[in-house]
Design a protein that fits this description.
Strand order of the largest sheet of chain A: 2-1-10-5-6
Number of helices of chain B: 9
Structural class of chain A: alpha+beta
Oligomer: heterodimer
Number of strands of chain A: 10
Order of helices and strands of chain B: HEEHHHHHHHH
Low-confidence stretches of chain B: 1-7, 9-18, 249-253
CATH superfamily of one domain in chain A: Oxidoreductase, molybdopterin-binding domain
Strand content of chain B: under 5%
Mean pLDDT of chain A: 89
Shape of chain B: elongated
Chain lengths: 253, 253
């Protein structure tokens, strides 16, 4: 082996080691600042991690576009959904007066809220777009209470990292990080276009995340859990959509 | 007499006897990574597209909105009636993962290539047509030669002809940036940070429609590109893009 090629070999060896060490440091920094999504494993993990990390750096505090009244889509689209269960039908027959959403996990005071209680909190509205991953979209006025307000009421502990939210169908659930949970446009929405939120659009209560695709805005919310790890939920995945059709956890694209 | 600026004559071709590679290593690696990403993006893009075959102009569009046009294809969802008696399997989960991962690889490769092209003179020497080439006489001769599928001369195996240069410039500096831009304009999170990305295009559905047409143009380019490889000599061109070597003696095989 000539001197030149040996030198080349040593240099490339050092470079490779530095690269691996650099990646290790980068991974640790990314983990510390919450730049690694729960679905970072597998063959699509790298792309998903780069997307999530760059979005978290770029869009942590940015606001989804809001539109004037004139841009609201009429009539509002109510897309297909799985048949509603018996529990839902019972509550619907009672005009949803007994609908409750419970909040537990890493909070100071676990609580359960009725719709009337949620409506007694400062009400906010936003005219934003709902964008489905299929390709269609519509704009509506969404009325509700910011999720951050509800989280303030129960007192979120500092080690909290995610909010898991579940619909009345226990197999339909998803989760978001604290950046999205505390974002001013993240609502527990109970109203739409000036009236109650129609069942077809997720009424009586739906989570609204205008900076992510529609499938993250789970309908018929009954339960919120504040947690520092998503490992205990479902089959260890971070969302029902990851178990069924393997959809990306972060849907801001 | 050497060609003067403004005089209508084609630029002198590079000498046949040169020992430097026909395509530099960076160009070759970038070419094949882009090829791989292109097919990944195309397949996953088609999969995502077939969940909603309707296209719109403006901000929003859904089943209740009049479409700009619709493709006569079956769909992978039953939200939109297609007239076909069946619904294709829904492959959007992995398709979306693959689409965005391949997009990252393609964009990063493209950045590296662009920096290389700007700073090594690749853009000036290999891609920008000389002033003398941009006149009707030369262009029309090239067009006629191409239409007759006339095989290229020995000298031309070492440099792109003017039509090639124009096509590559169009793809690299117009279609690729446009497809990235319209892709970003469909990201609800990205546009929350940079709203002009989508407002300049006239809305999110306009972005989707433009994204589709740019993709169609890219596929058309690919078809012509591959066809020209066969016209010019498949093995010699493949060898030039894989090993970097080019020589006219292989042309006959």
């Amino acid at each position: 082996m000539s001197d030149l090629s040996r030198r080349k070999l040593i240099i490339s060896g050092v470079a490779a080691t530095a690269r691996v060490a650099g990646l290790g440091v980068a991974a640790r920094i990314a983990q510390k600042y919450g730049l690694v999504p729960p679905d970072h494993g597998g063959i699509y993990g790298p792309g998903e991690t780069v997307t999530y990390a760059s979005q978290r750096v770029l869009t942590r505090h940015s606001l989804a576009r809001e539109f004037p009244q004139s841009k609201i889509s009429h009539p509002p689209l109510a897309n297909e959904m799985p048949p509603l269960n018996e529990a839902f039908k019972r509550l619907q027959a009672g005009g949803f007066t007994d609908w409750r959403v419970s909040v537990d996990g890493m909070v100071d005071q676990p609580a359960s809220f009725s719709l009337a209680q949620l409506k007694s909190y400062p009400s906010r509205s936003q005219i934003t777009m709902l964008q489905c991953e299929e390709g269609w979209s519509y704009i509506a006025e969404w009325i509700g209470v910011p999720l951050s307000h509800v989280l303030d009421v129960v007192g979120v502990r500092p080690q909290a990292r995610y909010i898991v939210y579940t619909s009345i169908d226990p197999d339909w659930w998803d989760s978001i990080d604290m950046a999205d949970a505390l974002h001013p446009q993240t609502f527990l929405a109970y109203g739409m276009n000036g009236g109650d939120l129609p069942v077809g659009n997720g009424g009586p209560l739906r989570i609204r995340l205008p900076r992510q695709l529609g499938y993250k805005s789970v309908k018929f919310i009954t339960h919120l859990t504040v947690t520092d790890s998503l490992k205990r939920f479902g089959k260890g995945s971070a969302a029902a959509s990851l178990e069924g059709g393997s959809y990306a956890w972060y849907a801001g694209i | 007499m050497p060609a003067e600026t403004g005089v209508c004559s084609s630029a002198p071709a590079a000498p046949v006897t040169t020992v430097s590679p026909r395509h530099s290593a960076l160009v070759r690696v970038a070419h094949w990574i882009t090829t791989l990403c292109f097919f990944a993006l195309l397949i996953s893009g088609v999969e995502i597209l077939i969940s909603h075959r309707r296209f719109y102009w403006g901000e929003t569009g859904n089943v209740l909105t009049r479409p700009l046009f619709k493709l006569p294809i079956p769909a992978s969802r039953n939200l939109v009636p297609t007239g076909y008696g069946y619904v294709l399997p829904d492959q959007n989960g992995w398709s979306r993962y693959l689409h965005f991962q391949a997009a990252w690889v393609a964009v990063l490769t493209g950045l590296l290539y662009t920096i290389f092209a700007l700073f090594t003179g690749h853009l000036r020497k290999s891609l920008l047509p000389s002033g003398g080439d941009l006149c009707w006489k030369v262009l029309s001769r090239e067009i006629v030669d191409h239409l007759r599928f006339r095989r290229l001369g020995k000298a031309e195996a070492w440099a792109y002809n003017v039509l090639q240069r124009l096509a590559y410039l169009l793809v690299i500096f117009v279609l690729f940036p446009l497809v990235i831009w319209t892709g970003l304009a469909m990201s609800p999170s990205f546009v929350s940070a940079v709203p002009a990305t989508v407002t300049l295009l006239g809305g999110q559905q306009s972005a989707r429609t433009i994204h589709f047409f740019v993709s169609v143009f890219l596929v058309l380019f690919l078809v012509v590109h591959v066809m020209m490889i066969f016209v010019a000599g498949f093995w010699s061109r493949m060898r030039a893009m894989i090993t970097g070597r080019a020589g006219s003696h292989m042309e006959r095989t």
